[in-house]
Design goal:
Distance between the termini of chain B: 42 Å
Largest interface: A-B, 26 and 30 residues
Largest sheet of chain B: 7 strands, mixed
CATH class of the largest domain in chain B: Alpha Beta
Order of helices and strands of chain A: HHHHHHHHHHHHH
Number of domains of chain B: 2
Shape of chain A: globular
Number of helices of chain A: 13
Number of helices of chain B: 17
CATH architecture of chain A: Orthogonal Bundle
Strand content of chain A: under 5%
Number of strands of chain B: 25
Oligomer: heterodimer
Number of domains of chain A: 1
Chain lengths: 322, 498
């Protein structure tokens, strides 16, 4: 009974949390119809895109038993690279692609440090947190880079240009990529190896899985998503800002953890992480609507993270009693 | 007709020689038993065959061609699969994924779930366990079912040579029977099996030929039909007891300081009763995994206990309510078999480690007197001949033998009356061993009581006054060491005696 309850919780817990957050604010709000309006949902969704994209990559890393602390810096670096490329007159599509490639490259270096130099992921990516941030400031000459307006800036607007899109193109991109990666993690050999790696690395090696190569792929692939998040960041701000997204990695990790990911590996889902990202976005939005100060948001989100993990621990104690 | 031939395989780990010129010949379709004491090198040899380790010297031939696997994947491609001693499963993944990991049915990288399910069902059916559902998470299965999943993994790999490292250690008897039926069927299909086990009756039931390893050397090989149990046991233990041990002080049979009555800490400890007296060294023999370690941990309050009574210094307490802190207050000290994991804080200094469980000896009002701590440690460094330049040297810079002396020094500094030592000389060089033996004998002569778990028979016979043997969770009666022989200890351990 308890075991099935805890399994049910694992699957639907994040949804329950999201529903709870939305209904609490709807009840508290003086203008619930405004809070629950499609207009407001569009705003929240557009705000979620960057954390959502980051958490797709992070989910994969966390399932494999790793961590990446360099997300925020990577976003700043790629946003600067994309903005600089636009400024140099490179076509927007190529500039965006360049940003994404730089993100993947940062991830690749993280992977190399972890697999070749045998530095634990926490430290390797902590190093990259500094290196990528520094590189971004260096490239941008310690100021924002302001390219001319292009269609790239349409990616993250709250009210998209062809109105039939309903929400920002970035939201659709995130939804598409989330679905794709959920399928990859569920149905491909690579995806199952990511889980195997996080579940029992020694056993994975004994089963003949090239664990180091899989890890290198995981960090590189995740880097692609962080790069894309950087391009969207640039598109939102309409500039490349080397000091942007400080601490974003923590939001991204929180989204994954709230969504059921386990920092000891083997567990997590893209869907859960997306819900986790939405829970945080709705919380922020709700607090703003209520006119609560910023520090209240921070306290609430901090508490939510601890509660989510405590529930996870309780569940794990039931299911994984070995 | 030999399928696999090993010649002169050697492997060292630092100063320890794990394998020293081992030969082995495996014929097609035979079950070859690899037997020997714990630490004889069996598992190392298996790991070399499975591509997990590479030998330092020697050559291997598979069907007459050189065989030098550089990774587990490479070994698996050449159809050699290893079933591990310790379970190596993915608790989060399904039964099907566990069985087929590394060889999933796939196309363009996409897993064909339907086909994986079908193959898993086929394998489970072959092994007569259709009740295990392919899509259940392995974490939800009981231990015995997990082992079946592990065995099914090797079967699914369609290996020509299957290495089984104590595959029955957590199986129930009906499952052992099924495994043997399956091995029988493999033999009919010309699959060769190398079967490691301590249990001679099992080996006799299933294997054709045998090789005995002792101290990293092959000491005998042949047909099982033409060798007696006594002869096999003699080959396993037949080692002259060298003169490593200090002269045994006559036990003064002092008062009983610890009496353990009907201790049960399932699943590993089913029943244990014994008395420990002042001035004696009580040895606990038995195989690894027989429950010796868990018994000591249960006594020291580190493992959950189901029932049992401890009488410490004439006061009876329930064994169920124990914590290491309480036991230390009652005068016990514990040396773990897992030195790096539990025995030491290797990043801390020698002085910190020596004084850790008795910091009050050199502190006042919570403030440590560092000089006093260093001097206290220095005294033990001298007494136990620990090779450390200064007491403030980090412990990880010491050799294994000296690290172990630091652990022992901690128990002595704490002035424990009852020393619970689990494999005190595991993995250390011979020189340190001798010094640890001396220190242990010294403790006994100072009227302390010593309980020593060991897998190394000469040390049980050379040092202890009385012996008891653990076998599958049950502790035998305690008898004076003169009433035991290495052969009877081994027979009791593998379930032949009592």
């Amino acid at each position: 009974m308890l075991a099935s309850l805890s399994k049910w919780f694992a699957r639907f817990g994040p949804f329950l949390g999201l529903a709870l957050v939305i209904s609490i604010f709807a009840l508290l709000s003086d203008f619930p119809e405004q809070y629950l309006s499609f207009r407001n949902f569009r705003i929240v969704l557009a705000q979620t895109v960057i954390v959502a994209l980051g958490s797709i990559g992070m989910t994969m890393i966390i399932i494999s038993g790793g961590i990446d602390l360099s997300v925020g810096s990577s976003i700043a670096l790629t946003s600067v690279v994309a903005a600089l490329s636009l400024q140099k007159g490179i076509p927007p599509s190529v500039a965006g692609l360049l940003g994404i490639v730089v993100g993947a490259w940062v991830g690749y270096i993280n992977g190399l440090a972890i697999t070749r130099l045998h530095v634990v992921p926490f430290i390797a990516t902590l190093g990259m947190l500094g290196i990528a941030r520094g590189a971004a400031k260096w490239l941008a000459g310690e100021q924002t880079v302001n390219p001319a307006e292009t269609w790239v800036n349409q990616l993250a607007v709250t009210f998209p240009d062809p109105a039939w899109l309903l929400v920002a193109p970035g939201v659709w991109i995130s939804v598409f990529l989330a679905l794709l990666m959920a399928l990859v993690l569920r149905n491909t050999v690579f995806g199952r190896r990511v889980f195997a790696l996080g579940s029992n690395e020694a056993a994975a090696r004994a089963c003949g899985i090239p664990t180091q190569r899989v890890k290198l792929w995981i960090y590189t692939l995740a880097g692609l998503f962080f790069g894309l998040a950087g391009v969207i960041q640039m598109s939102r701000l309409r500039q490349g800002d080397p000091t942007v997204a400080i601490g974003t990695e923590l939001d991204v990790i929180a989204a994954v953890v709230i969504g059921g990911g386990s920092l000891s590996g083997g567990e997590g889902s893209i869907l859960g992480s997306m819900i986790g990202a939405l829970i945080m976005a709705f919380l922020r939005n709700g607090c703003q609507q209520m006119g609560w100060p910023n520090y209240i948001q921070e306290i609430i989100i901090g508490a939510i993270i601890v509660v989510a993990v405590a529930i996870d621990r309780w569940r794990r104690g039931r299911v994984f009693k070995i | 007709m030999s399928l696999l031939r090993l010649s002169k395989i050697s492997k060292r780990f630092g100063p320890t020689v794990a394998l020293d010129g081992v030969d082995l010949e495996l014929r097609q379709g035979e079950v070859h038993a690899l037997i020997g004491e714990n630490g004889a090198g069996k598992t190392t040899l298996m790991n070399i065959l499975a591509g997990i380790l590479q030998p330092d010297q020697g050559r291997m031939e598979l069907e007459g061609r050189p065989y030098a696997p550089f990774s587990p994947l490479d070994a698996r491609r050449q159809a050699i699969a290893l079933i591990h001693q310790e379970l190596s499963l993915f608790p989060h993944l399904s039964v099907s994924e566990n069985i087929l990991m590394g060889m999933e049915s796939s196309r363009w990288g996409w897993v064909n779930g339907e086909d994986c399910r079908r193959r898993t069902l086929q394998v489970l059916e072959d092994f007569h366990h259709p009740e295990i559902r392919p899509d259940r998470a392995v974490a939800e299965l009981p231990i015995a079912a997990r082992q079946i999943v592990e065995i099914c993994r090797a079967i699914a790999a369609q290996a020509r040579i299957i290495l089984m490292d104590e595959p029955t250690s957590s199986l129930q008897r009906p499952d052992v029977k099924r495994l043997f039926e399956l091995i029988q069927r493999m033999r009919e299909q010309r699959i060769s099996v190398i079967y490691i086990s301590h249990f001679l009756e099992e080996v006799r039931e299933i294997a054709d030929r045998y090789t005995v390893l002792r101290d990293g050397q092959g000491v005998g090989t042949g047909e099982l039909g033409s060798v007696s149990d006594e002869n096999l046991v003699a080959q396993m233990v037949g080692r002259p007891v060298k003169n490593l041990f200090p002269p045994r002080q006559q036990s003064k049979t002092g008062e009983t300081v610890l009496r353990v009555e009907d201790l049960a800490a399932p699943p590993s400890v089913k029943h244990a009763s014994f008395e420990l007296r002042r001035g004696e060294i009580l040895g606990i023999g038995g195989l690894i995994g027989s429950g010796r370690t868990q018994m000591v941990r249960a006594i020291f309050g580190l493992a959950p206990v189901e029932s049992g009574i401890l009488v410490v210094a004439n006061k009876a307490v329930s064994a169920r309510r124990g914590s290491p802190l309480l036991r230390i207050v009652q005068g016990m000290g514990y040396l773990s078999e897992d030195r790096k994991g539990e025995g030491l804080a290797v990043a801390l200094s020698v002085a910190d480690n020596v004084t850790l469980s008795h910091l009050s000896s050199c502190s006042r009002w919570g403030w440590l007197a560092l000089d006093c701590q260093r001097q206290g440690a220095q005294a033990w460094i001298r007494r136990l001949n620990i090779k450390a330049r200064t007491p403030s040297q980090p412990t990880w810079t010491l050799s294994g033998g000296n690290q172990q002396k630091v652990v022992l020094a901690r128990l002595l500094h704490q002035d424990a009356d009852i020393l619970l030592l689990d494999e005190p000389t595991r993995g250390i060089d011979i020189g340190s061993k001798i010094q640890i033996y001396e220190a242990i004998a010294q403790c006994a002569s100072e009227d302390k009581a010593v309980l020593m778990v060991s897998s190394y028979l000469p040390e049980l016979f050379g040092l202890c006054h009385r012996l008891a043997v653990m076998s599958r969770g049950r502790l035998s009666a305690t008898r004076s060491v003169d009433e035991w022989t290495p052969e009877t200890v081994m027979q009791t351990a593998i379930g032949g005696g009592e």
